[in-house]
Amino acid sequence: MAPKTTTNDKIKPRSKPKPARPYQIGTLPTREAIVEAMATRPELDGKRDLAKYFGIHGDMRTPFKLLLKEMEGEGFLARTRKTLRRTATLPQVTALDIPADADADNLYAYPAQWNDDEGEKPRVTILVGKTARVVPAPGDRILARIDPGDGPLPQYTGKPLKILDKPRRGQIGIVRIDGDGARLIPVDRKLKEMRIDGGDVGAAVDGDLVEVTTKVSGRLMIPKAKVVEVIGNPKSEGAVSMIAIHNLEIPYRFPASVLKEAEEAKEASLKGREDWRHLPLITIDPPDAKDHDDAVHAEPDTDPKNPGGHVVTVAIADVAAYVRAGTALDREAYLRGNSVYFPDRVVPMLPERISNDLCSLKEGENRPSIAVRMVFDSEGRKRSHSFHRVLFRSAAKLSYQQVQAAIDGRPDDKTAPLLEPILKPLYRAYEAMVKAREERSPLDLDLPERKIILDNAGMVADVRTPERLEAMRLIEEMMIAANVAAAETLERRKTALLYRVHDTPSREKLDALREFLGSLDLNFAKSEAVRTQDFNRVLAKARAEGKTQQVSEMVLRSQAQAVYSHENLGHFGLNLDRYAHFTSPIRRYADLIVHRALIAALDLGKDGLTEGEIAKLPSISEHISATERRAMLAERETSDRLLAQFLATKIGAEFMGRISGATRSGLFVRLLETGADGFIPASTIGEDYYRFVEEMQALVGDRTGETFRIGDTVKVRLLEAAPIAGALRFELLSEGNRGKPSSLKRRPRRSSQSYGPRGRRR
After folding, report:
1. Quick one: how far is CA 41 from the chain centroid?
2. What mean pLDDT is reported for the chain?
3. Are residues 675 and 620 in the same domain?
4. Are residues 206 and 324 in the same domain?
């Protein structure tokens, strides 16, 4: 009888032989062995991984940790939070910053985060193939796969994986001098203070607004700052907008190469263009406008097949004639993406030589243009259109106010001779176009915008709500029609372009809006295919019931963000199937791309859209959408800081405001007079416990049912103003509306000796 085979007697399958190790397991490895292991095994990025790899256990753990610490102190290794790596090496995947002045055809980058104690930042050559899906540009932050090469010294190359949104630097702040150097108080309230050593203060004095670079010190990575630029006193002229410019990294100085190209540019001639100097096109803009990129003209259509019809012409500055693809001017325009408008300055997309001179449609001067001629019927429906590359001469430069006064029967010396031949035909065409607009029924949100008026010192003198004139609507309607015509033409020619898209509101936002409207006894249609008409009906009902502010605010919040895209998603807000930006190439890079696309599609010249640009349209759309968001944020932050500075002298004053937001932590209030935004902490409201009721967008008292909701008018007292942060804190003086308690479960009343001011006293 054969003996039983035990488990230990079973033949085990042979495993592959493990490669010989250049060290003995369980013994302390040499420094060279550790560096070599980390070079060949990138996953070994921590003490635990290294200990496992070298077979370190038991009593060997302590000397191994000491060895790693010594190697760190000697500069062999670098620590980033919980990871270790070889000094002056990059991870396989890392974030890189491409310099703004890099050559677009030979891109390079540096690590976005780097410890200066390791020496100079390694330079990474960016590899972008013809079929690459991610095409970065100068100024971008990217996520890239890193290859160090095969040589003894790293020769880094990077393959872009994704274009990242560049975070705000948070490196702008106020210097406060003390005995040990200085403190830096960041303008961003979310960031902590940093120390500045005495030798790193530079020329800054107490109270100066400065730009700093951050340094890392010691194992704990304690951040310190070094002053690199003194921006000036925060109360000086222009300093407030400079905070946003620096904080959001908005390019505001043109490189010498860009200025040189602009100065060397020569005026465009009639060659290759139609001569339209006989047509009396006029510009209509705000009275303080410095550049004029659109001109308009209208006349009755003489075609007997179109009785009562109109021929509308929109001429747009031909920026593509001066800003050619691949030039320094083009790279800088792309980097900026758009002009940024502050109350005290403009950061233009193009140098003044281009924007305010050669391309600006000045009265009585020959200017190159790409014009669209549109034929409308008597009901404002477009029958046809055509694009032309022309040379024309503006017959007049007028303001909205001038034009409106002339139409209202109060012409001045300049508008009187233009009234019958030019202005009245424009208005008759506009009246017809309004009929088509009403039939189309775009989203009817007419929210007033406030304008900050500054004095000679750059301080706020007044805040006004400009009157919404029909002259403004006229230009707006004709620009929309021109933009639609551009998109239609390029689609018909099967040419790539950048669309201006506005997606349909998401299901989640629509559900939230429906709940809110239900709390106001307003019904909103529940359907799979929501339309602008559905919003307009509820807005009209809200106006009739005196609930305009609440409903308008929530309808606006329900909308998606309009962006640029190489794919057409339509424009929900305007209720248009296709839409592109064509009418402002002086201040928007997207419009310049559309101009080049039209030139190429219609064979209007050799300066049209290139194959290289077409391949990059996805990344171009992402980039300029990001620069647009950056510009909007900068403008909003600057307005907040200016208004906080203006109100800092009115601490204790009482104001009327309207609740613009409700959260668990408190209420946001916008002052009626100035439009300044401030916050009321929930802990300071009354003597009840207030819960946030999301479907009502309100704070509701547990015991009393006292309700504060979006759109309610309230009286507040200003308690605190922080001009640098652009923050205001209010005390609520008004009582809320009485309703149902927020919850049957009551919380114990808080002590009258609780935190902060008690707020409104009953």
Report:
1. 40
2. 85
3. no
4. no
| 317 within 8 A of 283, measured Cβ to Cβ | no
Does 203 share its domain with 121? no
In the chain, what is the straight-line distance between the N-terminal and C-terminal CA atoms, in Å? 102
DSSP three-state, residue 315: strand
Domains in the chain, number: 6
pTM for the predicted model, two decimal places: 0.76
pLDDT tens profile 353-399: 999 999 999 999 999 999 999 999 999 999 999 999 999 999 999 99
Alpha-carbon separation of residue 748 from 702, 708, 745, 754 (angstroms): 10, 21, 10, 13
Residues 520 and 490 placed together within one structural domain of the fold? no
Q: Which two tokens stand for residue 353?
A: 């030589």
- Residues 554 and 567 placed together within one structural domain of the fold: no
Backbone angles phi, psi at 744, to 5 degrees: -75, -25
The residue range of the domain holding 147 is 93-164
d(CA 42, CA 50): 11
Closest to 292 measured CA to CA, from 607, 624, 583: 583
Residue 77 within any structural domain of the chain = yes
538 and 685 belong to one structural domain: no
In a domain, 596, yes or no: yes
| Residue 184 included in any domain | yes
Distance CA 117, CA 513 (A): 53
Q: pLDDT band for 446, please (50, 70, 90 cuts).
A: confident
Handedness of CA 7, 8, 10, 16 (dihedral sign): positive
12 within some domain: no
- What single-letter DSSP state applies at residue 168? P
Q: Which helix (H) or strand (E) holds 716?
A: strand 713-722
CA distances to 105, 261, 414, 623 from 254, in Å: 20, 11, 37, 19
Domain finish residue from 144, 164, 184 = 164
Write out pLDDT tens, residues 454-512.
888 778 888 888 888 999 999 999 999 999 999 999 999 999 999 999 999 998 899 88
- The CA distances from residue 308 to 473, 480, 482, 717, in Å, are 21, 22, 21, 58
Torsion of CA 430, 436, 438, 444, to 10 degrees: -70
- Single out the residue in 86, 114, 133 at which a domain terminates: 86
- Tell me what pLDDT residue 39 has: 62
Alpha-carbon distance of 430 to 310, in angstroms, equals 9
**Do 333 and 475 share a domain, yes or no?**
yes
| Angle (deg, nearest 10), helices 31-40 and 47-54 | 110
